[in-house]
Write a structure and sequence with these properties.
158 residues, mainly beta, 11-stranded mixed β-sheet
Length: 158
């Protein structure tokens, strides 16, 4: 499947089905929203592509900058609702193996963003988007070995 546009102009979402939506409506090449069934790869006109498969955690999308590049981003959707998260996205360094960022969206509305330096966890921010908890967010910092050194909570303001 070929989509006309930059890969960054498209958003993949999973509800009951995997869909891809064109977010760049100003280019005049609006692809709209497509439901993807039995699609294993999507090519974009900028030379990048997305590979679609499954693993034990659910539906997996691997994003590649070009045909020769290692994976730059991986998104996993919990299609069987087997975990306490709906999905997560990992971003990798140019080598395709060193993690630089991970964002996890939980079933209860929390969003966790973890940053890595040279593949080692350096900070983590959890945000209570659905306002379920007594705190609105918390931030954790880690030392150069990935060991927790501090946690700061930010409370809901009444």
């Amino acid at each position: 499947m070929l989509l006309d546009g930059q890969s960054d102009d498209f958003i993949f979402e999973f509800d009951a089905n995997l869909t891809v939506r064109d977010t760049n409506t100003s280019s005049g090449l609006d692809e709209g929203t497509d439901t993807l069934i039995n699609i294993e790869q999507i090519d974009f006109s900028d030379g990048s592509h997305t590979e679609i498969g499954t693993n034990s955690q659910g539906l997996v999308l691997g994003f590649f900058d070009d045909a020769e590049a290692p994976v730059s981003v991986r998104t996993v959707f919990d299609t069987a609702d087997a975990f306490n998260w709906a999905g997560y996205t990992q971003t990798f360094a140019d080598d395709g193996t060193t993690l630089t960022d991970r964002e996890t969206v939980f079933d209860d509305g929390r969003v966790l963003n973890v940053d890595y330096v040279d593949g080692i966890r350096s900070s983590r921010v959890m945000t209570d988007v659905a306002d379920v908890y007594s705190w609105s967010s918390y931030m954790q910092d880690f030392d150069v070995n990935g060991v927790l050194i501090s946690t700061t909570y930010f409370d809901d303001i009444a």
